[in-house]
């Protein structure tokens, strides 16, 4: 992992540059707090913003992007914006329509990355064809999936013209997903972590606290650094300016191999979100 700063990027399979680090806005409601969080992230150097149709906040994210770009004096092309098609909109035509709707709400002319949010059995392959169409027409810069296990990826790839460029999954020290990551590396699929801090459940872990003390960093910073050193793109959520700044202050230290292994050892295959093989929404 060679990320040296907040603007550092990984190269996706199609050559598109995706920032290693970004901000997520899951469960952040529409309103001034959301707009300010996006603007604050941009002001402090974030260049990747992750949302989804089901979050119900694409309009606020779009407003934050417009105002943030203007205040920072940077171009739209300098940002990497991701959204996702929700389960109810899976299917070829409905996925195309969902993309249009997301663009309209965000007030953007294109997305940098569009993902299938969950692998709904019997539906995701048709949606993938729609994503391939959007990509081939140059309307989205990269396409991928979210919450896909190895067998979902294998099934998708059987009939796909284009292999997913990204797989965004729940990933943190209690759920290290080694087999999935190895498969993604082998296929050239960039793994991305959602809920990297396990919704705050790891912040009191004694092993992580011990490691954090050693580096004079917070537990959150240690976890996010562990993500990056594992070659995993990460998008922690926060609306508070001091946390947005703190989360991104992870480029001035390196975890030793021994500390990386200690963190790996915390794995319990424990999820805070649904299992992609067994979800009901």
Automatic annotation (TrEMBL):
Swiss-Prot/TrEMBL site (Lowers pKa of active site Tyr) positions: 84
Keywords associated with the record: Oxidoreductase
Sites where the protein binds substrate: 117
A Pfam family matched in the record: Aldo_ket_red
Superkingdom of origin: Bacteria
Active site: 55
Boundaries of every NADP-dependent oxidoreductase domain copy: 32-267
GO molecular function annotations of the record: oxidoreductase activity
PROSITE patterns registered for this protein in UniProt: ALDOKETO_REDUCTASE_1 (PS00798), ALDOKETO_REDUCTASE_2 (PS00062), ALDOKETO_REDUCTASE_3 (PS00063)
InterPro entries per UniProt: AKR (IPR020471), AKR5G (IPR044500), Aldo/ket_reductase_CS (IPR018170), NAD(P)_OxRdtase_dom_sf (IPR036812), NADP_OxRdtase_dom (IPR023210)
Similarity-based family: Belongs to the aldo/keto reductase family.
Name of the protein described by the UniProt record: Aldo/keto reductase
